[in-house]
Amino acid sequence: MLKYLLLVLLTMVPVFACATKMKQSIPPLKVVSYVDLNKYGGTWYEIARYPNRFQEGCVGTSATYTLRQDGKIGVLNQCRKGSLDGEISSAKGKAWVMDKKTNAKIKVSFFWPFSGDYWVIDLGENYEYAVVGHPDRKYLWILSRTPEMDDATYNLILEKLRKQSYDVSKLMKTLQVK
Asked: For the chain, which domains are there?
């Protein structure tokens, strides 16, 4: 029994070493140089995202950000469940800036004490689109001020994401209201 356990452990060492090496080979995620939180506020429509468990079945997804008097950001995420006619599901949370120099690294919490990283990694010149990622690249959202995004802009974003070591094949487009 001990020999078997030792054999299993020894065969797992290369797997763990490889996983650690792979994780280290991804360059650090770059954020935009600066986010004007007043311009960033308002409603954003989700154009595409990495699949995640907390948005399962969501379509027509939007996020609304408002600056609060305490310096934090109010967050309201909404979607329709199953179809554009489905029941509205919403989640209220709050966010706070982690990097005051850029305002691009933000923590978001919908259920205290749990929070997640929300990093703005691409932003349209006129705040017409935003791309939000996670430093480990496990989450990704492409957002727009309108429910639709033209193909040229979307493809440019995909190219930038590839350069940031994102697997764009995992993106799923979000069904939106027209």
From this structure: 37-173 (2.40.128.20)
